[in-house]
Design goal:
With about 55 residues, the protein is mainly alpha-helical. The chain has 3 helices and no strands. It has one domain (about 5-45). It is about 60% helix and about 0% strand. Helix 1 (about 5-10) packs antiparallel against helix 2.
Length: about 55
């Protein structure tokens, strides 16, 4: 994954409008699951919104 914090990767790909965004989002979620931080977990519900497909 990139050097960006995982939460930023999730935020920038949250619309899931292309196969690439879906792949990047899924990889970032998997990485986040392996390295759980309470602060990042609290941010997860804020990433998905009504604009997500």
């Amino acid at each position: 994954m990139s050097q960006k914090p995982v939460i930023e990767v999730l935020e920038s790909n949250h619309s899931l409008r292309s196969p690439d965004e879906v792949t990047i989002f899924a990889q970032a979620l998997a990485e986040r699951a392996q390295k759980s931080k309470a602060m990042d977990l609290l941010s997860l519900p804020l990433i998905l919104d009504d604009a997500c497909e």
